Each structure stands twice: as C-alpha cells, then as structure tokens.
Amino acid sequence: MHLSDFDLQQLDKARLSALTVSQKEALLEKALDDLKEARERLKADSRTSSRPPSSDAPWLGVREEAAAAGEPRSAAESKSGKSEAESGDSTVPEKAPEAEAKSSSKPGRRPGSPGHSRRQRLAVTETIDHRPAHCALCGDALEGRAFTARTGLYVLDIEPCSGAGLAGIQLRHDQHRYGDCVCACGHVTRSEPGRCAAEPLWTVALSEWRLIGPRLASLIVCLAQRLRLSRRKISEFLHDWLGVALSPAVISQCVIEAGRAVEPLEAPLVEEVQHAALAYVDETPWKESGQPLWLWVISTVTVCLYVIGYRSKAILINIFGETFAGWLMSDGYHAYRHFSRRLRCWAHLVRKARGLKESLSGEARGFGQATLEIMEEAMAAIYRAREGPPVDLSVAFQARLAAFRAVCEQHHDASHEKTRALAREFLNDWEAIWRVLAHPHLPLTNNEAERLLRHWVILRRISQGTRTEQGSRALALLASVIETCRKRDILPWPYLASVIAERRKGNPAPPLPAAAKA
User: Fold this and answer.
1) In this model, does residue 82 exceed pLDDT 50?
2) What is the pLDDT of residue 53?
3) Which residues of 87-102 are buried (b: 16+ CB within 10 A; e: fewer)?
4) Three-class DSSP category at 136
5) Domain boundary assignment for the chain
6) Quick one: three-class SS letters along 81-105?
7) Which of 17, 241, 316, 376 is the most buried (most CB within 10 A)?
8) Contact criterion met (CB below 8 Å) for 338 and 313
9) Exposure of 278 by Cβ count < 10 A (0-12 exposed, 13-18 middle, 19+ buried)?
C-alpha cells in the first residue's frame, strides 16, 4: 500500500482542495493502486491464494456445492441459514456480557505477572534515526525537515574492529528510531521498519523489526551450517565470547529467517544448472522429523545446488527441465537414465569388481577379474589420451567391449547375487559407462558431488536431520548459497549479511557475485 492508515487520517476535503493539480494526480494514482490491491485482497480465498481453507467464509463452501448441483441461490442460503439481506450483521455473533467485560481490559502482560521479556541491558553504541525521504502525499523531498521519533527498537550486530592491529569483530548495540516529518504541504509522513511481504511455507517474518542484525545473523548461520554447532552451543559461544544472551529459539528463528532471505537466489542457480555443459549429481538419505527424505546435490563449474525431497525422477526434472543438453555424471540410480547424455561413475563399478575378485565364489572371482582388467586398461588409455590431441578410443576398444559384453550376458542370470547384479548394471548402463571412451576429456568419477555431500552427511549424523519443512528448506537454500560462493572463491558471510539486510527492507536480493578472477 502507498498510503497508510496514518496518511489517510490526515486527508479531508480541505486538504485535497489545497493541493495543486499535479499533486492531486499523484495522489489519485496512489489511491487507485491501493484500491485495486484492496479489492484483490478482498476477493482472495483458498482457491485463488495461499490462504488455508479454514480462512474462507463459512457459507462459501455451501454455495459452491449448491452451484455444482445446479440449485438456485436461495436453496444454498437455506442450507446455511438466512440470506445476507435477512441476516444483516448477524454473521458476526453478538458478544456475551462476560465476553464484553473481558474485552474492556488492555491486552498484553499485566504488570508484576511472570513473563519472559529480555532482561539483559547493554549500553547503546549509536542512535540511528530513520527519516522518511519523501512526502507520501505530494512526493516532495523531506530532507532538512524536523524529525519526531515515535517508535524504535534495539538491534544487536557485529562489525570489524577498527584501528591498527589484528583483525577481529566487536559487538554493536544500536537504537533505531522511526517517526514523523512534516512536509511543506502540511502532510505528516511517518517512517516504519521495512518488511518483506508474506510468502508461502514461511512462518518466520522477514523484517527490520529484529533484535539480531544482518552481520550477526550471518555469523550465526556460519556457526550453525558451516561449523555444525547446535543451537545451545551457539548460545554458549555468543555469551562467552561476545557477552550476548540469546536463547536457542531466537537463534533457530534467525537461521530460518536467513533461509527465507536467500530463497529468491535459487531460481538463478537452477537456470545456470540447466545451461551447464557438465553437471555432477548425487543424493544421500535425510530425515525430516523422522520422515525419510533425500538430500540432493547438483554441482557445475560455478554452481552448487542442494534440494531436500523425495528420491524420484520428478526432482531431477524440476531442476534440469526437459531440455537439459549437457553431460550428467551420476551413479547407477535408475532415475538418471531419463537423461540421454549421461555418464556413469567408474569408481562405484571398480569397487564392486574388486569385491567380486576377493569373493569366495569362483564364478564371482572370474567375473570380477575380467571387469577389472578391461576397466584398468581403458582408464590407462583415457589418461594417455588426455595428454595429447582429442582422440576417439571407442574404435580401438570395439573388439574388447564386444567380448566383455558377452561375458556380462553370460553372467546375467548367475547364481551369485552380486555377480548377477553387476552384470545387469553393466548391460543396463552400457552406453553411459563406455561413452567416456569417445570423449576422453570427460570425468570418470562422481567424486565432485560426493565431496560436496560429505559436510552435510556429518551434520546429519550430529543433528539427526531437520524437524520441519521450512527447516529443511532453509538448510538446503543456505547450503546452496554458501557452497556456491565458496566454489566461486567468494567469502559467503558478508554477501549473506547484505542479502538479509536488503530482504528485510522488502527489496530484491542482491545477485550472486561472479567468480573471483585469479
């Protein structure tokens, strides 16, 4: 909304008549935009917005059912009681006498009653006045006008230590004040803390009305995500080293808010993945309040994207789309077979072949030995080819591959379970496994993606996963931003602080920085 309730309280016919024609036109444009937005909000329900069905009017469902059955309007109204014309204001139940008596008391905690308000008192580092820049009515600049503070809040933040010597951080405790400025036209414009509009899934507000500042929030994310500290250990660290008392609940809320702040950055990362020439992908189990899910990672030269969801082909299609034209390095999970330009990780196959070679079964030992021989011979040829001009090795290995395929078909129904499984794996992924012979410059293993999962696997073992859907979403989003910055040789924490600061104001998130030049 362009005009707040405070602005509208000051408008009357006398004030409008005193405005110039250009000022009236500017006011009319603002009022028209506000009217359209108010009408859209008024018409919104669970069918057209993210509102839950419980927020719909009680008669809405009855009328929809009646309309679907072909009943006239009056019949639908008879099911729900009186019509609107008959009911008048009866849709709002009359208050009982005892309810009216209760409503007369002031809201909030009574003086002297037990509570959980903040008890720590810190000295104020600086008082910052947030003055309105322009008049909400006529649009004139308010620079130099008298400022009257109306409300404010205290914000804890950190900053680099000033002066010569070793680098470090120091705590700030600032008082932010918001208030009024009177324009030459007589209108009073009031400044308010910035706020991001409500978004689906997120229950934690994203606004400047926060105790924890952007840089301190970035530090808390670093302690939680990168250093894998629990909420209580973070609280202990901040108390012992910075002298700040923050509860685990406030710290958890801060991490969720940071995850919500970086959510708009996911779309550009997905777009870069879809246009990548080569992508690595892997997945590992994850738990969300005991529910078995999977943590996916997709890595390219400049992007690292994490997603928590089910282990299904739909996740891959949502990320890569239907037109992904790059190479995809993966393991043997069958959902990856959807991609035509797919590569198979040889490290998995070599490990399985070595296991068969050391088996107690003669049949398994023979197949494991044959597999190792052809793969080691092919790897040696690939490494030699990478040192010289591009060459196609598939012609040189055509006879060897035909003989090995016959061996795989021979063991397709072997009695030894692991021998049978490996033979079928080669036959199912034959093109994906041996495609690297025609393109020796392509990678042989999926170690890039597996290394990027290792840190978060350790975090999963410590924390036992996440507890809520928005907790899983925040973890994946923050991990994507942190690892992408590290991949681009950019320090993630100052950038994360800038994203939180801008999103709290209701502004777009700053774009991810490009890779640092060597």
Assistant:
1) no
2) 72
3) eeeeeeeeeeeeeeee
4) coil
5) 1-31+123-192, 346-444
6) CCCHHHHCCCCCCCCCHHHHHHHCC
7) 316
8) yes
9) middle
